[in-house]
Each structure stands twice: as structure tokens, then as C-alpha cells.
Amino acid sequence: MSLLLQPLISAGQDGVEMVCVDSQIRCVYPILAAYVVDFPEQCLVTGDERGDPLSSLMRDPQLIKEVLEKRKNGQHLAEFEEYGLCTIYNPFWADLPHTDIFLTFMPDLLHQLHKGIFKDHLVKWCLDIIGEEELDAQFKVMPHYPGLQHFKKGISMVKQWMGTEHKEMQHVFLRILAGAVPSQVLLVAHTILDFSYYAQLQIHTTESLDLFHANKNILLELEVCEHFNIPKLHQLSHYVQSISLFGTTDGFNTELLEQLHIDFVKEAYHASNNCVDDERGYESESSDSDSKIEDSQTQPCSTVHPANMAPMTDPCLVHSLAKNPAYPRQSIQHLVTAHGTTMFLQAFKSFLQKHIPHNKIVPGPQDRFDVFRQVVIVAPSNPQANDSQKWWRIRATPEVHPGVETRV
């Protein structure tokens, strides 16, 4: 790393001429401002062997360099043991100008929140309280709902966890715990999940974890946790400072890099002469494939409108339907009988009058309509939350009359 960043030393001190976006040449001073790594590498980079205690303050890089230099010269300082340092006397960042290595460590939503605090700690604590069998049973009885993943075999049978599974668990985890854990444990879980969602937005406050600290001792009383000197929990206290200095957390999330890593590894592997998938290898499909539209089954609707018609919806919204309807040319009577749409014709006429006032077509009982199983609406991202595109699936199923058994 020292060899890779060697050019930054002179560039950060003397500056380099660069062509900016307005075609003007300016003197720029590039520095190391952000460093995204996992926790073991953070300890290695900073010369820290233990990691920070829960209540420690941000360290001074100049002081750390002085302690390491004195230790290198044979002096045995109490600070070396107190800070939990290891014998890395020449860290790569020591000579980089204007660099505070402790500030460069960015929040990582995937490894710190989804996988770290939630999966490795919160879920483990709740497993110790409820038990694996009961927790699996709660996941199994969750009803199916569009947009939510159903863990039909529980969570103990999942062999390969990815960020998508962690986020899907978070959607229903409070409902799983309701009534199965003490109320204080439910508040602890509620606070951690709230912080996980708040941290993904553009704004969250310094009081986001206050409720957690007020109720966390219940975990000690239930003997499911020995202490709270957890490095990833401590890192949450620096989120506000990191967001204030470097921007929102989505700019430093490693989830995208992990996904690209999987894709590139698969492409290289399948290009080799070993095309047999190992059971412990990467899955052939990404775990969020349920939220995507298969090209072979759907196609985007045309956005070209006749000259005498106004656009029906926001042009930013994209509607997708299957190439062929599941039930083509259905009569009005069939729609009423099979789907219970007694007001369909009246509602359709009102829709046309409101959204396409210049339309000359008047639907009647003699007309027939194609019936699709679902329509997918792709909404643009929310700039206030820096969210990704939303995929909404609207499914149409026949009406189920009371007392009639159906098979899924």
C-alpha cells in the first residue's frame, strides 16, 4: 500500500495540474480522504490490535505515530499497551499529507449494520432468548405478502447469507419478536432497526441510539450478552461525524462492490475449464432476482401516445406486462363471475374520461378484455432518501368465495 500511495505524498504537498470539467487547468492537491475496509484490516492499518472500546474518543494520528516511533527505538511506553497497539512501526499513512487515518474509515452499511450489528449480534441475542426452533417456527408461519420474502424453512437452514437476506429479515423481524421476548428486548431490536434505516437516509440525529443504550442492560440480565465492548457497535457512534464530513452512507457502501465481485468471479470461473459449481461457491443468480423482471417474460409498455391522447401517468414511471396475457379476450360476465369485478365497466369508463378525455372509444358489455396475472410498476428513486428504484408488483387473482378450497 505504501508503494501504491507513494505518488500522493508529493502530489498532496506540491499539487498537480489537472483539467477540470470546465476545461480549465488548475492546481489540485489530492489526498487520501476515504478508506473503505473491514474491521480486521482497520485494526491492521492503524496498528491497533484490539479495536476501540465502546466509550473511546477519536484518536490523534500524530500521537499514535510518536508512540510507535518510540516503541521502535526500544522505549516501553504505557500508552503502547493502553491503546492496544501492535508492532507496525511504519504504517503506509504516516507520510501522507493532510490525512487523518482514523477519519478516513467510512460507514459500511453492509458489514457494519446488516451483517454486523443485525445478523451477528441482534439475531444471535434473540436466538439465545427464543431458541432456534421457535424462531424458525415464527418465520415459517409468516403469511405470504407481495414484496416480502417468505422463509418457508426458517433461517437456520440458510447456508449462504447475503445482504439481501439480511434486509429481508429486517422487514419482518419485529413481528417475529413481538410476544416472544421481553418488552425491553423488543425496544432494543426496534432501536437497532430504526438506526439501520435512518443511516441510509440523508439525515439522522445524534440521539438515534439513545433508546438502545437505555434498554440494553436487559440483555445482560438475560445472560445473552456479556458486554457491549463491540467494535461495530462503537463505529455507529461515528456515523454522524462521517456523514457531516464526507456525505451520505450510500456513497461508501460495499454492497455494490461485493455484487460486482460475485459477477466478475462467476464470469472468470465459467470461462475456465472448471464449470461445475461447488456447493460452497457463489450462487448462479443474485439473491435479489425476485425484485427484477425477467426479460423473457416481460417487456416495457410503449411510451408513445397518440396525438389526440394525453399521457396517462408520470413519464418517469415504467409499466411492464407479460408478452402474452394469461387469459386473453375475457368477457365482462367472466370478469364479474371469476374475479368479482362487478363495477369494472363503470370504473373503466370513468378512468378513460378522467385520463384520456379525447378518447372516442366507449367500452360496452360486448367488449372483451385481456387479463394479466400481474403488472410491474418501476418508480424512480427518491432523491431525498437516495433510494434505489422501487419495483411494485400488482397481482390479480380470482375471487375466493367463502368455504371454497383452493390450491396454490
How would you describe this structure to a colleague?
With 408 residues, the protein is of the alpha+beta class. It is 39% helix and 9% strand. It contains 16 helices and eight strands. A hairpin with a 5-residue loop joins strand 1 and strand 2. The protein is extended.
Structural class: alpha+beta
Terminal CA distance reads 57 Å
Strand % is 5-15%
Rg over C-alpha atoms, rounded to the nearest angstrom: 28 Å
Uncertain residue ranges: 276-315
> Count the strands?
8
Q: What is the approximate shape? A: extended
Mean pLDDT: 75
Q: How many helices in DSSP terms?
A: 16
N-to-C SSE series? HEEHHHHHHHHHHHHHEEEHHEEE
Task: Describe the structure concisely.
By secondary structure, the protein is of the alpha+beta class. It has 16 helices and eight strands. The strands form three sheets. Strands 3-4-7-8 form a four-stranded antiparallel sheet, with no helix packed on it. A two-stranded antiparallel ribbon has the order 1-2. Strands 5-6 form a two-stranded antiparallel ribbon.
